[in-house]
Amino acid sequence: MPSRRAAPHAPAFEATDRRDRPEVIVDFVFDRGLLQVAVANVSDVAAYNVCVTFDKSFRGLGGECEVSSLPLFRRLRFLAPRKRIETFLDSSSAYFQRREPTRIAALVTYRDAARHAYVRRIVHDLSIYKDVSYLVQRAGTSSLDVSTAAVERPTPQSGSVRHGNPQR
Cα dihedral sign for 96, 98, 67, 150? Predict the structure, then answer.
Protein backbone atom coordinates (compact mmCIF):
# COMPACT_ATOMS: atom_id res chain seq x y z
CA MET A 1 0.00 0.00 0.00
CA PRO A 2 1.43 3.44 -0.92
CA SER A 3 2.49 5.77 1.86
CA ARG A 4 0.14 8.68 2.74
CA ARG A 5 2.93 10.81 4.07
CA ALA A 6 2.84 14.51 3.21
CA ALA A 7 5.50 15.82 0.89
CA PRO A 8 8.60 16.81 2.90
CA HIS A 9 8.39 20.45 1.74
CA ALA A 10 4.72 20.96 2.68
CA PRO A 11 4.17 22.68 6.06
CA ALA A 12 1.77 20.86 8.41
CA PHE A 13 -0.73 23.73 8.55
CA GLU A 14 -1.36 23.48 4.77
CA ALA A 15 -2.64 19.94 5.23
CA THR A 16 -5.82 21.23 6.84
CA ASP A 17 -8.84 21.79 4.65
CA ARG A 18 -9.22 25.44 3.55
CA ARG A 19 -12.90 25.19 4.46
CA ASP A 20 -11.84 24.95 8.12
CA ARG A 21 -10.29 28.43 8.14
CA PRO A 22 -11.73 31.93 7.84
CA GLU A 23 -11.27 33.91 4.63
CA VAL A 24 -11.63 37.68 5.02
CA ILE A 25 -11.48 40.11 2.11
CA VAL A 26 -11.82 43.85 1.51
CA ASP A 27 -13.72 44.91 -1.58
CA PHE A 28 -14.65 48.19 -3.24
CA VAL A 29 -18.23 47.95 -4.48
CA PHE A 30 -19.40 50.06 -7.43
CA ASP A 31 -23.17 50.29 -7.81
CA ARG A 32 -24.78 52.80 -10.19
CA GLY A 33 -22.15 55.44 -9.58
CA LEU A 34 -21.82 54.91 -5.83
CA LEU A 35 -18.70 53.48 -4.20
CA GLN A 36 -18.72 51.49 -0.99
CA VAL A 37 -15.99 49.67 0.91
CA ALA A 38 -16.79 46.23 2.28
CA VAL A 39 -15.10 43.89 4.75
CA ALA A 40 -16.42 40.38 4.20
CA ASN A 41 -15.88 36.96 5.70
CA VAL A 42 -16.44 34.80 2.62
CA SER A 43 -15.98 31.54 4.52
CA ASP A 44 -18.11 29.33 6.72
CA VAL A 45 -15.83 29.90 9.75
CA ALA A 46 -15.79 32.90 12.10
CA ALA A 47 -12.88 35.37 11.99
CA TYR A 48 -11.50 37.22 15.00
CA ASN A 49 -9.46 40.41 15.50
CA VAL A 50 -9.85 41.54 11.90
CA CYS A 51 -7.66 44.51 11.02
CA VAL A 52 -7.34 46.22 7.64
CA THR A 53 -4.47 48.56 6.86
CA PHE A 54 -4.53 50.51 3.61
CA ASP A 55 -1.30 51.60 1.93
CA LYS A 56 -2.84 55.01 1.15
CA SER A 57 -5.39 57.07 3.01
CA PHE A 58 -8.54 57.98 1.10
CA ARG A 59 -11.43 60.26 1.85
CA GLY A 60 -15.15 59.94 1.23
CA LEU A 61 -18.42 61.75 1.87
CA GLY A 62 -17.43 64.71 -0.27
CA GLY A 63 -13.91 64.70 1.19
CA GLU A 64 -15.18 65.19 4.75
CA CYS A 65 -14.31 61.76 6.17
CA GLU A 66 -11.08 59.76 6.10
CA VAL A 67 -12.80 56.46 5.38
CA SER A 68 -9.55 54.48 5.38
CA SER A 69 -9.11 55.10 9.12
CA LEU A 70 -12.60 54.17 10.32
CA PRO A 71 -12.81 51.88 13.39
CA LEU A 72 -14.48 49.30 11.11
CA PHE A 73 -11.05 48.63 9.64
CA ARG A 74 -9.09 48.67 12.90
CA ARG A 75 -11.18 47.10 15.64
CA LEU A 76 -13.38 44.38 14.22
CA ARG A 77 -13.19 41.82 17.03
CA PHE A 78 -15.58 39.27 15.48
CA LEU A 79 -16.78 38.70 11.93
CA ALA A 80 -19.37 35.97 11.62
CA PRO A 81 -19.29 33.44 8.79
CA ARG A 82 -20.62 34.88 5.48
CA LYS A 83 -20.98 38.32 7.14
CA ARG A 84 -20.32 41.45 5.09
CA ILE A 85 -20.08 44.99 6.48
CA GLU A 86 -20.18 47.88 4.01
CA THR A 87 -19.66 51.59 4.46
CA PHE A 88 -20.49 54.25 1.92
CA LEU A 89 -17.43 55.90 0.38
CA ASP A 90 -18.74 58.50 -2.10
CA SER A 91 -20.20 58.93 -5.55
CA SER A 92 -17.65 57.82 -8.10
CA SER A 93 -17.74 61.21 -9.82
CA ALA A 94 -16.97 63.07 -6.57
CA TYR A 95 -14.24 60.58 -5.62
CA PHE A 96 -12.45 60.90 -8.97
CA GLN A 97 -12.90 64.68 -9.17
CA ARG A 98 -11.03 65.03 -5.87
CA ARG A 99 -8.23 62.88 -7.34
CA GLU A 100 -8.37 60.38 -4.51
CA PRO A 101 -6.09 57.33 -4.88
CA THR A 102 -7.22 54.77 -7.44
CA ARG A 103 -4.66 52.04 -6.75
CA ILE A 104 -5.17 50.96 -3.16
CA ALA A 105 -3.62 47.95 -1.44
CA ALA A 106 -5.28 46.51 1.66
CA LEU A 107 -3.44 44.32 4.14
CA VAL A 108 -5.98 42.18 6.01
CA THR A 109 -4.96 40.34 9.17
CA TYR A 110 -7.23 38.08 11.22
CA ARG A 111 -7.32 34.97 13.40
CA ASP A 112 -9.40 31.85 13.68
CA ALA A 113 -10.91 30.40 16.89
CA ALA A 114 -7.67 28.52 17.62
CA ARG A 115 -5.79 31.84 17.35
CA HIS A 116 -3.96 30.94 14.14
CA ALA A 117 -3.03 34.15 12.32
CA TYR A 118 -3.74 34.84 8.66
CA VAL A 119 -2.61 37.66 6.37
CA ARG A 120 -4.01 38.60 2.98
CA ARG A 121 -2.92 41.44 0.68
CA ILE A 122 -5.46 42.65 -1.86
CA VAL A 123 -4.75 45.32 -4.47
CA HIS A 124 -7.64 47.28 -5.98
CA ASP A 125 -7.58 49.54 -9.04
CA LEU A 126 -10.56 51.87 -8.81
CA SER A 127 -9.69 53.58 -12.10
CA ILE A 128 -11.63 50.81 -13.87
CA TYR A 129 -14.82 52.57 -12.75
CA LYS A 130 -13.94 55.98 -14.28
CA ASP A 131 -15.42 55.17 -17.69
CA VAL A 132 -18.45 53.18 -16.55
CA SER A 133 -21.84 54.62 -17.58
CA TYR A 134 -24.80 54.12 -15.27
CA LEU A 135 -28.42 55.08 -14.72
CA VAL A 136 -29.34 57.32 -11.83
CA GLN A 137 -32.68 56.69 -10.17
CA ARG A 138 -34.54 59.90 -9.43
CA ALA A 139 -35.79 60.42 -5.88
CA GLY A 140 -39.36 59.31 -5.35
CA THR A 141 -39.38 56.66 -8.08
CA SER A 142 -39.62 52.99 -7.23
CA SER A 143 -37.74 51.58 -10.21
CA LEU A 144 -35.25 52.50 -12.86
CA ASP A 145 -37.09 53.78 -15.91
CA VAL A 146 -35.04 55.00 -18.83
CA SER A 147 -37.59 57.74 -19.54
CA THR A 148 -37.14 59.23 -16.05
CA ALA A 149 -33.55 58.26 -15.27
CA ALA A 150 -30.50 60.37 -15.96
CA VAL A 151 -27.55 58.76 -17.70
CA GLU A 152 -24.13 59.63 -16.36
CA ARG A 153 -21.02 59.02 -18.39
CA PRO A 154 -17.55 60.52 -18.49
CA THR A 155 -16.82 63.11 -21.17
CA PRO A 156 -13.92 62.21 -23.48
CA GLN A 157 -12.17 65.55 -22.98
CA SER A 158 -12.08 65.91 -19.23
CA GLY A 159 -13.04 62.61 -17.66
CA SER A 160 -15.66 64.53 -15.69
CA VAL A 161 -19.25 63.37 -15.59
CA ARG A 162 -22.12 64.83 -17.58
CA HIS A 163 -25.54 64.52 -16.01
CA GLY A 164 -28.85 64.13 -17.80
CA ASN A 165 -29.23 64.96 -21.48
CA PRO A 166 -26.29 64.58 -23.86
CA GLN A 167 -24.60 67.80 -24.93
CA ARG A 168 -25.53 69.02 -28.41
Answer: negative
**Best CA proximity match to 105, nearest among 122, 117, 91:** 122
pLDDT over 70 at 25, yes or no: yes
- Report which DSSP code applies to 48: E
Same domain, 109 and 157: no
For residues 108 and 24, the answer to whether their CB atoms sit within 8 Å is yes
User: In terms of domains, do 94 and 75 share one?
Assistant: yes
- Asked whether residue 124 falls in the same domain as residue 137, the answer is no
pTM here?
0.71
The model's pLDDT over 94-113, given as tens digits with 9 standing for 90+, comes to 999 999 999 999 999 999 99
pLDDT at 14 over 80: no
Residues 103 and 130: beta-carbon distance below 8 Å = no
Nearest-5° Cα angle at 73, 69 to 77: 140
**Phi–psi pair at 30, nearest 5 degrees:** -110, 120
Are 55 and 49 spatial neighbours (Cβ–Cβ below 8 Å)? no
Distance CA 52, CA 126 (A): 18
